[in-house]
């Protein structure tokens, strides 16, 4: 595709960018809250839980901060499987991570459709 940022990013003018930003910020909160669940419910050692949840939260907050650039979307795409993989430490995160990943993909697809509609109206 001839777009800046490749096929994995949306332009800054696309309204779905705000939705994707919000998803990433919610992921930061959920990944952070997963840490005590990993420790208290699943019996994961504290260091492992903080490392796993911290990596997920750090990726999400970094992606959110850089979402105006294509690299932010790339990090956001990487964040989604990390959220699902947190299920290795506490099984509920399989479902929660999959929900976030599904919402991320849906938001991206809808953003692309908005782009196509805007381009069709302009021509």
From TrEMBL:
Keywords: Membrane, Transmembrane, Transmembrane helix
Origin superkingdom: Bacteria
Transmembrane segments: 21-41, 47-66, 71-88, 94-111
Stretches of the chain forming a coiled coil according to its record: none
Name this polypeptide is given: DUF4233 domain-containing protein
One of the Pfam families matching this protein, by short name: DUF4233
Keyword Transmembrane: yes
